Amino acid sequence: MANLLNYIDDCQFDSFYDQPLNRLDILALTEIAYLPFDQLAPYAFSLAEAIRLDQLAVKFTQAFADGYPPLLMVTKERLKLLDKLSKSKRFKHIKVLGFVDDYDLDKQKQFAALCYKVCRDTYLVSFRGTDDTIIGWKEDFHMTYMAEIPAQKSASNYLSKLMDSLTGHFYISGHSKGGNLAVYASSQQTADKQEHILKVLAFDAPGVHRSIIESDGFKAIESRIETIIPENSIVGMMLETPKGAHIVQSRAIGLLQHITFSWEIENHDFKPAETLSGNSIQVDKTLKTWTANLSDEELKHFFDTFFGLFIEAGIHRFNDITKDTLQKIQQLIANSQHLTSQEREMVDRLLLSLLDTRYQIWKEDLLQNLAKPQEKIEEWLKPFFAEKKEEAEL
Q1: Are 37 and 99 in contact (CB under 8 A)?
Q2: What's the rounded Cα separation, in Å, for the pair 348 and 341?
């Protein structure tokens, strides 16, 4: 089945005047925002200092001629995507500016973003999703109880300053946590700036805090928010998600559907799915039920304790564990022994609570399904009986 890379091949000779910017174009540019463009793409919000996408790709290849950094976000699909975009008539003349990559351990913040000038007076602001840093993942879980995390504040300030510096109309996008930042930052802008926002696209992104959903700023921009999730979405179902999400088919299974290169494409758009999978709905119920039964202080204590074990063991990125692996594991075990009896009890209790909640929701869904009409049950069992019949005939 066709995916994002196939689309880039198909439209490479179409200009944005022949075929206007669409959500596949936006996803492609959002995906390459994960690549480490530090010292390669300009930070200044100035078109005079902007760099063309094809020129950026050359600098990127030269900078990593001896090998790419061992970062989980540098995937072969994203490298291939950058190469295709840089050689495409449609994309290579796009200008890149405003690149920022802000990682702050003390402030527990992971934030990165960049801006593209796509065509005359039209810009795309892309926020990077969670990278391979422990702090980035910890910040994601902080969103379950915090109305504003450090990266959201940075995203709002970034967008405000950028729109002060550039004149035109803006698309705002992001994948995973980046989509959350796109929605949050757009909701925090003044009314006159919001008038220049054409659309906000969140690709399998966690929702925002309920207090944001209820704010005037969010309501003013809500009709321009487009949420796109795969049929087995897990990440995109977290928190309060905007209504009317577009569900798309994916050729991957489970959590791997979070990878957008697995999303199926047809007729220059995403291939729609009828509904979310049962597993996606169950996991969504589990997380929301679990967090609803805990206080903000309990959630903060749990995440601080859990992720603190990794940081204290010298594991700041997931790839850190590949170096001196045995030593790192031994350090993790040693650190866990230093927890107080109360902390160990809390971690054990909350993990057991999460597992028990998952089991209870699975059981309730099973009982509801069994209570459905007989013909519905027979419909579910048809594949099973067909398989048994085939085995008997053999």
Answers
A1: yes
A2: 10
Q: From CA 301, how far away is CA 350, in angstroms rounded?
A: 11
Between CA 155 and CA 172 the distance in angstroms is: 11
Neighbour tally for 244: CB within 10 Å:
10
Question: Would you put residue 39 in left (φ > 0), alpha (ψ -120 to 50) or beta?
Answer: left
Asked if residue 163 lies in contact with residue 196, where contact means CB atoms within 8 angstroms, the answer is yes
Cα distances (Å, whole numbers) of residue 104 to 63, 96, 108, 112: 24, 24, 6, 11
H helix count then E strand count, the chain: 15, 10
Q: Residue 267: what residue type?
A: N
- 77-98 pLDDT per residue, tens: 999 999 999 999 999 999 999 9
State how far the Cα of 137 lies from the Cα of 135, in Å rounded to an integer.
5
Rounded to whole angstroms, the Cα distance separating 345 from 311 reads 21
Neighbour-count burial for 320-352, b at 16+ CB within 10 Å, e otherwise: bbeeeeeebeebbeeebeeeeeebeebbeebee
Tens of pLDDT, residues 120-170: 899 999 999 876 667 766 766 777 777 888 899 999 999 999 999 999 999
How many other β-carbons are positioned within 10 Å of the β-carbon of residue 105?
12
Q: Which H/E stretch holds residue 212?
A: helix 210-213
What is the per-residue DSSP string for 281-331? HHHHHHHHHHHHTS-HHHHHHHHHHHHHHHHHTT-SBGGGGGSSHHHHHHH
User: Of 119-123, 136-140, 312-316, 318-322, which has the strongest mean pLDDT?
Assistant: 119-123
How far is it, in rounded angstroms, from Cα 130 to Cα 261?
A: 17
Mapping DSSP to helix (H, G, I), strand (E, B) and coil, where does residue 109 land? strand
Q: Which two tokens stand for residue 215?
A: 């704010």
Q: Are 291 and 299 in contact (CB under 8 A)?
A: yes
Cα angle value 144/115/221 (rounded, 5°): 50
Separation CA 357–CA 283 (nearest Å): 10
- Which residue segments constitute the domains of the chain, with CATH numbers given? 4-276 (3.40.50), 283-393 (no CATH)
